[in-house]
Each structure stands twice: as structure tokens, then as C-alpha cells.
Amino acid sequence: MEQHTDLLSVARKVRVAGKELKKRRDRNAKIHGITSNQADALTFIRDNPGCSITVLRDCISTSHQAACGLADRLVAKGLVEFGTSDDARVKTLTLTPEGTEMLRTFYSVGVEDSMGLFGDLSEEEIRRLDKIMDKILEGIDVRCDPGGTL
User: Fold this and answer.
1) Distance (Å, rounded) from C-alpha 71 to C-alpha 50?
2) How far is CA 32 from CA 38, 131, 135, in A?
3) What is the distance between the alpha carbons of residues 1 and 127, in angstroms, rounded to a whole number?
4) Helical segments of the chain, H only
5) Residue 110: its pLDDT value, please?
6) What H or E segment, with its residue span, contains residue 91?
């Protein structure tokens, strides 16, 4: 029973840290005039230039309508541009130079923000934590990581 209590304590701490990371990430995105979901989409599009809205939809696990709306908002902000594939019915997505710059700025602020949470850890502790998190995530079906590094 004691081992389960300790495990639940660890799980609670991971949830608290995750909530704080999300709060900081949301605040960072808002400062830059986007949402964290839009930042996730920009990261995915950067890593998968020319992807279709359907691929983006599957990655962010949302409806096709929501993915279309997200893409439309990013295009309206000048961060993404539409293109077409061999099949003219399929819209593709590519970052604009403004979208690339937005991500660069977003991530640099995100690194600074993360230092607030992880700054007291040594390089070795960060490497160990990274390996532990990789091991935990191996057991989860993560087909797509729209969040990238931050």
C-alpha cells in the first residue's frame, strides 16, 4: 500500500508541474497574440511543411472543422499560408517568414520561462529527468507531439 501512496504523490507532483508549465506557456502565447494551441499547430506545420489540414487535425486530435478554423486563424494572422497538393481539393499549410519568427520568439521566451521551473536542477538532473520522462511517455500512445520542445 505504501508504494502506491508514494506513486500517487509523484503523479500529483507531475500534474502540478504540468499545470504550471501549461499556465506559463499559455501566458507566453497570449503575450505574442496567439493561443498555445496555435503555437502547437505552428510547431507541427514547421516540422511538417506542406502538411494537409487533415494531417494537422489528426495530430492535434480535433474535428476537421476545428482544424480548418485554426488554420484559417493562422492564415489571417499572416503566420501560415495555404497551398495545394497534387489534389487541388487538399489545402496544404506552410509557415510564412512571420510564422517562423513568431515561433523563434515564442520559444526563446519559453526557454526563459522554463528556467523558472527547472533552473535549480543541474545539467545531470535535467538529463535524468528527460530520460525518466521519455520512459514514462513510452507507455503512452503519442503519435504526434504538436507541442514540440515547449
Assistant:
1) 13
2) 11, 31, 33
3) 30
4) 2-31, 36-47, 53-60, 64-76, 97-118, 123-138
5) 82
6) strand 91-95
The model's pTM: 0.77
- The half-sphere exposure of 121 on its side-chain side, counting CA atoms within 13 A, is 13
Count CA atoms closer than 13 A to 58's CA, side-chain side. 6
- Least trusted range by pLDDT, from 32-41, 48-57, 63-72, 110-119: 110-119
Q: Are 85 and 92 within 8 A, CB to CB?
A: yes
Question: Measured between alpha carbons, how far is 137 from 114 in angstroms, rounded to an integer?
Answer: 20
CA dihedral 7, 12, 16, 21 (to 10 degrees): 40
Rounded to an integer, what distance in angstroms lies between the CA atom of residue 144 and that of residue 142? 5
pLDDT at 115 over 60: yes
